[in-house]
Write a structure and sequence with these properties.
7 helices, transmembrane helix, 2 strands, mainly alpha, about 50% helix, transmembrane, 2 domains, two-stranded antiparallel sheet, membrane, about 190 residues
Length: about 190
């Protein structure tokens, strides 16, 4: 239906109602096919639909912020899945860019491999069934950087736990990780003064 509104021949001048329908349809089409496509064909996420209820205010919505948040959410998910020991679903750490390894089917299988299913049907499934991979199996340099006093793998696990406990968005995991990773070094540096 969205594509039909966009490709329709309006015969020159569009009515105000047609203009509003076109604006809303255009946003849905661009968001669902170009900027933040879903994993399913012809599926549009509904997170931004409140922004198109009044097409005259579409320009007031911070579309860039929305796209960046969705992108960062995807990056954190890739980092998480790529850092967990998922057995047969682990990928070789030599392929870059990493995102090319993550098809929709592979992501779905990796998520299932890391999901704990509760015994009763009233509770939702939870993530975190798997353990972190050993540093040499993770393709990111930060996973291999170690010192005797501090291990980044432990900081990453702590950041994930903090994010889950505080129920904060997944994009907060990265900054929390860096705060946890830097704190001991910063503390020692400040104590030396």
């Amino acid at each position: 239906m969205v594509k039909e509104v966009i490709v329709k021949d309006y015969g020159g001048v569009m009515s105000a109602r047609e203009q509003d329908a076109f604006k809303a349809a255009f946003v849905v089409y661009v968001m669902s096919t170009l900027l933040v496509p879903g994993a399913k064909h012809d599926y549009a996420g509904v997170n931004y639909w409140n922004a198109i209820v009044d097409p005259s205010k579409i320009s007031c919505y911070d579309w860039g912020d929305y796209v960046v948040h969705r992108l960062m959410d995807a990056v954190v998910k890739v980092l998480y899945l790529d850092s967990m020991d998922l057995g047969v679903w682990n990928m070789e750490p030599k392929f870059f860019p990493r995102i090319r390894c993550f098809s929709a089917d592979r992501i779905r299988s990796m998520i299932l491999a890391d999901t704990l299913f509760p015994g009763d049907s009233y509770r939702l499934p939870e993530f975190g069934k798997s353990q972190l991979r050993k540093a040499d199996g993770v393709p990111y340099v930060w996973a291999r950087m170690r010192s005797e006093q501090f291990k980044l793998a432990s900081a990453w696990e702590a950041a994930i736990c903090v994010s889950r406990t505080l129920l904060v968005p997944m994009e907060a995991t990265g900054p929390i990780f860096f705060a946890i990773a830097v704190f001991p070094h910063l503390y020692m540096f400040l104590r030396s003064y």
